[in-house]
Amino acid sequence: MKRTIILDPGHGMGNKSPGVFDPGAVSNGIREADIVMDWANVIRELLIEKGHDVVRTRVDHKDPCAISQRAKIAERFGGAVMLSIHCNWGGGKVSGTETFFRGLTNKPKAQAISDAVSKALGTKNRGAKNESQSQHARLAVMAFQPCFLLEIGFIDNDFDRSRMIDPAYRRQACNAIADELLSNI
Predict the structure, then answer these.
(1) What b/e string do you get for 71-83 counting C-beta neighbours within 10 Å, with b at 16 or more?
(2) pLDDT band at 137 (very low <50, low <70, confident <90, very high)
(3) CA neighbours closer than 13 Å in the CB half-sphere of residue 82
(4) Are 43 and 174 in contact (CB under 8 A)?
(5) N or C: the chain end with fewer CB closer than 10 Å?
(6) What are the sequence ranges of the domains in the chain?
(7) 153 to each of 4, 19, 73, 107, how far by Cα in Å?
(8) Is 25 helix (H, G, I), strand (E, B) or coil?
């Protein structure tokens, strides 16, 4: 059955302030907004190949999308599931992949996404976490349900960053993500 999947490459133009580009976390000159856009584009391609519709909350760095609008986009297009893609920052002291969720019924899929990505990248699996365990009490994108916020890895960790920007590892992980997004929706 054909589904509409919503992909939210985090940060970007107008994320927090109109007309201002938000690069997200930056390490060694590599911006989170660039990594997550690359990942969203690969996941999009794979989902389309599998016969599904894909809507991105932003399609490039010029496309403005306020954080307050991202869940509304998912609602407007009738998304079956939404994935918000990010990179973590830990002051150079932590590593690994984790996926945030809202509501206990979404925990198994969040765990499956985290498992799939950490296995594909060889990163530490930090598991599924309730949104309240993030740096914010509530995550705005999760106003749409079901929504999962994937922290691919820590951009300031050399190993995690090298895996996130490697095209072969990215494609392998994105394929696993596409499979998980489509399971049981």
Answers:
(1) bebbeeeebbbbb
(2) confident
(3) 29
(4) yes
(5) N
(6) 4-182
(7) 26, 28, 26, 19
(8) coil
- Quote the CA–CA distance of 116 and 14 in Å, as a whole number: 31
- In the structure encoding, which two tokens stand for residue 172, read together? 């392998």
- The per-residue pLDDT for range 79-93, each reduced to its tens digit, is 999 999 999 999 989
Q: What share of the chain is helix, strand, coil (3-state, %, to 5)?
A: 40, 25, 35
**Over pLDDT 70: what percentage of the chain?**
100
Determine the 3-state secondary structure of 101 from DSSP. strand
Fold held by 4-182 = Aminopeptidase (3.40.630)
The residues near 147 (Cβ < 8 Å, ≥ 6 apart) are: 71, 74, 81, 82, 83, 84, 101, 102, 139, 141
Cβ neighbours of residue 52 under 8 Å, at least 6 residues apart? 2, 3, 4, 5, 182
Give the three-state DSSP class for 50: coil
Instruction: Show the tokens assigned to 182.
Output: 């489509």
Q: Which two tokens stand for residue 1?
A: 């059955």
For residue 113 the two structure tokens come to 């996404």
Strands 26-27 and 30-31: antiparallel
1, 28, 43, 59, 164 from 36: Cα distances, Å: 27, 16, 10, 11, 9
If you compute the radius of gyration of the chain from its CA atoms, what whole number of angstroms results? Answer: 15
Would the pLDDT of 110 be above 90? yes
